[in-house]
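One-letter codes give the sequence; the fold follows as tokens. An example follows:
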Amino acid sequence: MKMKELSLFRDLSEEEITRSMGCSRSVVQEYKKNEYIFCQEDVPRKLYFILKGNVLLGQVNAMGRQNYAEYLKEGQSFGEKDLFLEHSAYEYYALARTKTTILSVSSHFFYSTCAKNCAYHKKIIYNMMRIFANEADQMSKKLYLLTCGTLRQRVSYYLMQQSGGNPQVELTMKREELAAHLNTTRPSLSRELSYLQECGVLKIQGRGRIAILDFGRLQDEIDKVEE
């Protein structure tokens, strides 16, 4: 992804983007696969945008169990909540799942306009408001996912959402990560996937790949009312 395609730089010219990079002390950095971008309990200092690759946001509790997982892809941002709510430490970690290129922006850039009162600075702050609105929308969808009913309904809804109408679904998270994302355990998730396969709704084609065989019946599982 090119810099100008980021939501942060929407409606900015190439020149404005270049100037804003210096004004904001932005840095583009590459991370190797499985390298930490930041660790749980690090101090929030920057806002991050994914230019290339994939990032896992995860949380491990005191017992060593992963109880939160979010998978982010190219174009998405992270670190906003902890940065702007001025948390003393991150409540989760960020891990590069593939070779990943990240744009990091210093927090100071968003707290005031620069001495020159540049027009692009105002545009970027406005774009950040759009990003926050989009994040709120995504959180609303995630909340619906976690409260839409039984685990089977949550799994069905997630698969329907990920498919986008395409029968071939690539699961971007490992089974344990997906279980944490759906607020369940890995064995429970596996049981539900096996049930849907036995019913002819889907076919598990290997690690990370599922074929949806019957969208109608998958929707029926989502709409099913508990007895």
